[in-house]
Amino acid sequence: MEHHVKGVTKKQEKFDLDGFSCLPDCILSHIFSFLDTKSAIRTSLLSKRFKLVWTLSPSLNFEFSGFSQIKYLKYTYHVMTEEEQASVESFKSCVYNVLKQREHTTLTKFHLSLPEDAGSTFIEDCAFYAAQHNVQDLTIYGFTELKPATLPRLLLTSSSLISLHLHNAYGRGIELPKSVILPNLKVLHLDKFKFSVKKYDGWLSTGCPNLETLILSKCWINPGDKFADLDLNLPNLKNLEIEYWSCVWDSLDDCMINVMAPRLSLFKFAGHLVRVNFKEGLPCLDVLCIDLFCPSLNLCTVVHKCRELNGEYLLHLFHQICVVKFLSLSPDTIEVISRMPEFGQVVHHAMFEKLRITESTS
Predict the structure, then answer these.
(1) Cβ–Cβ under 8 Å, residues 182 and 157
(2) Can you list the positions of beta strands (E) in the chain?
(3) CA 220, 222, 228, 234 torsion: positive or negative?
(4) Going residue by residue through the chain (362 aa), what tens digit of pLDDT does each one get?
(5) How many helices (H) and strands (E) does the chain have?
(6) Fewest C-beta atoms under 10 Å: which of 163, 221, 270, 354?
(7) How far apart (Å, rounded) are the C-alpha atoms in residues 4 and 215?
(8) CA–CA separation, 55 vs 133, rounded Å?
């Protein structure tokens, strides 16, 4: 026996059962923005109503299907098999088709992950499309074997870009111009970027005045062209992370990162400690995380110098700290501190007034 709510017709009941399809395009496109692009496109099979709704999604996320199997090959010279090459070409064709069919609406997010060589033209086309559609959040994980991809000027002078994440930003990957102007950029993550006189004119300070989060991963200063100091004058910076700074030991003592960031509340460092000089101190620092990397004992020729430099730079860092609320130290960092009798003289009582110390296991 069928039961119907008083005053509700069968037609209305059917309408309510499919209420999701009856939502306006603006709401559906917002919902679709939380899906990966492949899943969003699959919804076109649900009904005629959903056939083209995915084309309105403000978010695009392209991740190469073979990423989990071959992502570690970026550190070796890898010749692709015919099957792998066919997969890359199929992936590129799919991306081009999606971009062609998509409605020309603003992009809130564009993520591209392709660790195998897809050619510089493909990466440049994707970056240009993102720039044309006023992308706000852009991530490109790109790799090219023969010629580096050059990002379009339209993108690197964008007023809409808020978050930029570039992997492999050097050599045979993505090449940045000497000058960049991103007035509204708040989050920047550079992976494997080389700072040199020929490649960098200080645009982190002059071209990104509203930067709040800066992550430098596996970056380095080129000592060969007299570029010794990296100056970061970022008045709005709140979070600074330096991960695995790349430098040979012989030139490590020749470079310095000068930071002027009076609002900095979080500083994380992982890897070989490089000299960081905070010109105005750290009056607002809440979180300090240090995870030093020390070579194993079997590398006895460099162990002593490594520990000596790490200890020296760590003391220099703590000299600049007034108060910190949360301190995280890795086991290697604690070992370095334990070998420094002068450490207790540097760290004064006021610094530990609100301190919580944790031992990082990472």
Answers:
(1) yes
(2) 59-63, 109-114, 137-142, 149-150, 163-167, 174-175, 187-191, 194-195, 213-217, 220-221, 229-233, 239-243, 256-260, 266-271, 276-278, 287-292, 326-329, 356-359
(3) negative
(4) 444 444 545 444 444 435 556 655 566 666 665 666 666 666 555 555 565 566 667 888 888 764 333 333 333 334 445 555 568 888 888 889 888 888 778 888 999 988 778 889 999 999 999 999 999 999 998 878 778 899 999 999 999 999 999 987 665 788 888 889 999 999 999 998 888 887 888 899 999 999 999 999 988 887 666 677 889 999 999 999 999 887 655 556 667 899 999 999 999 999 877 788 998 888 889 999 999 876 554 444 556 666 677 777 888 888 888 778 888 888 888 887 877 776 666 555 445 555 555 555 54
(5) 11, 18
(6) 354
(7) 59
(8) 13
Tokens of 236: 């709005």
pTM: 0.79
d(CA 243, CA 291): 9
**Residue 179 token pair:** 């000058």
Bridge partners of residue 356, in order along the sequence: 326
- Chain-centre distance for alpha carbon 192: 11
Type of residue found at 210: N
What distance lies between CA 203 and its chain's CA centroid?
Answer: 17
In the numeric block, which tokens belong to residue 85? 């090459």
Give me the amino acid identity at 298: N
Single-letter code of the amino acid located at 194: K
Nearest Cα neighbor of 58 from 92, 28, 20 is 28
